[in-house]
Amino acid sequence: MKPRVMSLVLFTCAVGLIIAPNEISFLNSAISLFAVALGAGAAGTLNMWYESDLDALMTRTCLRPIPTGKVTKNQALLFGILLSFFSVSLLFYSSNFLSALLLLFTICFYFFVYTVWLKRRTVQNIVIGGAAGALPPVIGWTVVTGSLSLEPLILFLIIFLWTPSHFWALSLYKSKDYKKAKIPMLPVIYGQEKTKKNIFLYSILMLPVVSAPYYLNFASNVYFFPSLILTIYYTYLCASLVKTKKNKISNFIAKKIFVFSIFYLFSIFLLILIDNLFNLIYG
Fold first, then answer.
1. Which of 58, 101, 129, 150 is a plausible cystine mate for 177, CB 3.0–4.6 Å?
2. pTM of the prediction?
3. How many domains does the chain have?
């Protein structure tokens, strides 16, 4: 079920839920977040069912349950399908039709569009497929409001534009794995230098979208200045990667970017949450 991925999904969904303007009971909130966590787990399970042949070839994924024989492919498929139906049904029960529909769309998009269609066919797999990982805060918002607005769209864009630099950094220092599995990641097809430039480009795009909550008046200085510092440092790391020519140093910086990017996204959403709570208390 990819619990590490699920934890970030759950956190961003919770932020979307908490900062939404309407009220919802604690019980419904807890059940809804649990349903989203199960939906994320279902998507991860179906992904690992379909990619078990690739997972067995890569050092990063060879110890997953199916390649190691802890779980059979049929067990994983059945579990993933049942979990998908249960999570969507549970979210519909605890919240509303729109939230359940968005969760169903997220699972289907991650599996059919990203896993089945894009991942083995195009270097843009991560860019387009990133939409699935960007939807949890939108789902959290709709759980409370039952509608869409500009605020969750900005939260979506933050994750959507963060995803390429995050995964391309990983693919840089794990390029041999992706080449062995014949997955057309950017460094495998176009080489390291073009990948570095694209990582840097997407880090620059983070600056306006991370600043958007402040300029659109749904976040204050409590959020703006720390997020600005974090984003500038993230861009600095990516710029350092572009300047580096030696592979060993490049791999070290790429790994540093990958690790920091997780902390970075978590911090951005934590700041949004802190800012919202600060404004509720001190108005």
1. 58
2. 0.96
3. 2
